[in-house]
Design brief:
Blueprint: E1 6-13, H1 19-29, H2 47-52, E2 60-66, E3 72-78, H3 87-95, E4 99-105, H4 112-123, E5 127-133, H5 142-153, E6 161-162, H6 171-181, E7 194-203, E8 207-216, E9 224-227, E10 233-235, E11 238-242, E12 246-248, E13 257-261, E14 275-278, E15 297-303, H7 309-321, E16 327-333, E17 337-344, H8 347-360, E18 365-367, E19 374-378, E20 383-386, E21 397-412, H9 416-425, E22 429-437, E23 440-448, H10 449-453, H11 456-463, E24 469-479, E25 482-489, E26 492-493, E27 499-502, H12 503-520, E28 528-534, E29 537-544, H13 560-575, E30 577-580, E31 583-586, H14 587-594
Parallel strand pairs: 1-3, 1-4, 4-5, 5-6
Antiparallel strand pairs: 2-3, 7-8, 7-14, 8-13, 9-10, 9-14, 11-12, 11-13, 15-17, 15-18, 16-17, 19-20, 19-21, 21-23, 21-24, 22-23, 25-26, 25-27, 25-28, 28-29, 30-31
Helix pairs in contact: 12-14
């Protein structure tokens, strides 16, 4: 394809602002997908994506379009994930485009993540086409939000296009604007091949499918290629484009977007952001911006049925084929048995992984409270990286460091007070505040990551009646006054309940956990103290009083079959008990204590 007739673009939008619907409409209007094959949310492949209405993996699709100048263009739409956990994938998809549609719901206005992605697109020098969607809605305020957007990107309110992805109104004009405003790709056709990987997905039948954007040169079938970050080499078995179903072709040239298949079985061999070159005639310089995906949030995953452990291990292996960011290693807990300590990009990534494990592999799981990575410096000069609170070092600690994020909150200005209160409570410090329009404000905070990963977003939403939106990015670490709180049953620490918390919050955590456990653990033959402690210092205590429980006493000696039934029931109950020292704890108690709220 002549690069002059190619336009590579993506859509930047907040969740629910209509990105998938707009993509559907583009496919339909241009005839890329026949009407009878059309189904809603064509590009959202994974079931969980469709259910939750979010796009997890980016996808590419080729749309042929005959513009007003009667030439037929190749429009490549690169779909980007909309959630903050997947920022790195967004940045890679942006790097594969020359332009972006900034899509904003005409009844909602712009949201924090959209703004963050917009800034990322501007940094990548992308041409921006501002578009208001859902103008068919009675609640739409296109004039108001056109002005807001114009203020942010520095254009005229009249430059903001107005469409309805639902009815199709304005979509053809938008396609023409893409051709007119977004530059054609430029690259050197005769140079050694360089292609950027912006996505890679595992397919059960075809192995890893790698989505690439060719920058220079050409890639062809049967050619041997090399991954520039790892030097691993593979043969291209198939090369093609998504139209949107995969269609083989005889090679991809400058500016083209498509997929390659090499027969590798694991996405970690084909990493997002890496540069592919030809093995015979390699390029010397990688394309900019490659980053290893780095897990930020850790949690222990345990099967509720101990016998499911091998199933869980196989399931994690399988998920990892499709998820280069997922890491795990075996872990044992006195309370929960055998499981895995897993690392995730963020809380959503954790939730999605857990949901997939439960659904696709039919597992029932317990996950321990999520925590971030801590760096602990000891007085003897050694250093520890802690991803599991129960592995917190003992000995003389010089300092503890925790990751911090730069957070942006966009909200109607009525809620500024509530937001400040929440951020203060979460140890945040205000960095700046700007009015986007008369009644909407942007607030910038530095916050410890640990304070965000748990339930910050839920609280933000409930304090602002759902109107505020949040975005954050990692921004180094800070030294903090953190302590490890242990929960002890009869003097024995229960590993699954240890937590690293700020000194000022240790007491509250201790009181809450000891209260919860006192209620959840049944009385034993002896008194059981439940304590929260920092090192040897007890900060909270509850007692579970002793009882002498003889279930048979109730039967008055008479009815034998009833007696037997009771005995059996008691035995069954015992199976689900875990011993912590001499204390019998029903598994349900652990599960309830670990579940949030
Ligand atoms: P995404 O999360 O950005 O991919 O958003 P979707 O495309 O899934 O759309 C979110 C919701 O908005 C769905 O219920 C769509 O039917 C609806 N929607 C999308 N575009 C329009 C539109 O132009 N008008 C109306 N009324 N609803 C729309
Ligand atoms: Mg979508």
């Amino acid at each position: 394809t002549d690069p002059a007739l190619i336009r590579n673009f993506c859509i930047i939008a907040h969740i629910d602002h209509g990105k998938s619907t707009l993509a559907d409409r583009m496919l339909q209007i241009t005839g890329a997908v026949e009407d009878r094959q059309m189904r809603a949310q064509y590009l959202d492949r994974m079931d969980i994506e469709r259910e939750r209405g979010i796009t997890i993996k980016s996808q590419a699709v080729r749309i042929p379009f005959t513009a007003l100048d009667d030439k037929t263009y190749t429009l490549d739409l690169i779909d980007t994930p909309g959630h903050v956990d997947f920022t790195y994938e967004v940045s890679r998809s942006l790097a594969a485009c020359e332009g972006a549609i900034l899509l904003v719901d005409a009844a909602q206005g712009i949201e924090a993540q959209t703004l963050a992605n917009l800034y990322m697109a501007l940094e990548n020098d992308l041409a921006i086409i501002p578009v208001l969607n859902k103008i068919d809605l009675p609640a739409a305020q296109p004039e108001k939000y056109a002005e807001e957007i114009a203020g942010i990107i520095g254009c005229e309110p009249s430059d903001v296009l107005k469409v309805s992805a639902k009815t199709g109104e304005g979509v053809e004009e938008l396609l023409n604007e893409i051709v007119r405003q977004i530059p054609a790709p430029v690259g050197e056709a005769d140079a050694p091949a360089r292609a950027m990987i912006f996505d890679s997905v595992y397919d059960t039948y075809r192995g890893v499918v790698t989505y690439v954007r060719i920058v220079d040169g050409r890639l062809s079938p049967r050619e041997r290629i090399q991954m520039m970050s790892t030097k691993a080499s593979h043969e291209i078995l198939e090369i093609g484009v998504s139209s949107p179903e995969p269609v083989k072709c005889d090679g991809l040239g400058v500016g083209e977007v498509g997929y390659i298949i090499t027969g590798v079985k694991d996405v970690r061999q084909s990493k997002v952001g890496d540069t592919i070159t030809s093995l015979a005639d390699p390029a010397t310089k990688m394309l900019a911006g490659y980053q290893e995906p780095k897990p930020m949030v850790f949690s222990g995953l345990y099967p509720i049925e101990g016998t499911d452990y091998p199933v869980l291990r196989d399931a994690l292996d399988k998920l990892q084929l499709n998820d280069a960011a997922l890491v795990f290693e075996p872990e044992t807990s006195a309370a929960l048995g055998f499981g895995f300590r897993c690392g995730f990009l963020g809380l959503l990534h954790l939730e999605i992984t857990r949901a997939r494990l439960e659904r696709e592999f039919n597992l029932d799981l317990i996950s321990t409270a999520p925590n971030v990575i801590y760096r602990v410096e000891m007085e003897d000069g050694t250093e520890h990286t802690v991803t599991n609170p129960s592995e917190f070092p003992t000995g003389k600690i010089a300092s503890i460091h925790e990751p911090v994020v730069k957070a942006t909150v966009l909200s109607p200005s009525d809620y500024v007070g509530q937001i400040m209160e929440l951020c203060q409570d979460r140890r945040g410090s205000l960095q700046g505040m700007d009015y986007l329009s008369e009644d909407r404000v942007e607030m910038r905070y530095t916050l410890p990551m640990a304070e965000i990963v748990f339930d910050f977003f839920d609280h933000l939403k409930s304090r602002t009646k759902g109107y505020a939106s949040l975005d954050y990015e990692l921004s180094g670490e800070q030294e903090s006054d953190l302590v490890k709180v242990d929960i002890l049953l009869q003097g024995e620490a229960v590993d699954a309940f240890s937590a690293i918390v700020h000194k000022d919050k240790a007491y509250a955590y201790g009181v809450e956990m000891t209260k919860k456990l006192r209620e959840l653990i049944p009385r034993q033959q002896f008194e059981v103290p439940v304590q929260a402690a920092i090192g040897a210092r007890v900060i909270a205590r509850e007692n579970i009083r002793a009882i002498r429980k003889d279930v048979l006493a109730k039967c008055y000696g008479g009815d034998i079959s009833r007696k037997r039934k009771l005995l059996e029931k008691q035995k069954e109950g015992k199976k689900r008990m875990k011993m912590v020292g001499r204390v019998e704890v029903p598994q349900e108690a652990f599960i309830s204590a670990l579940s949030t709220d």
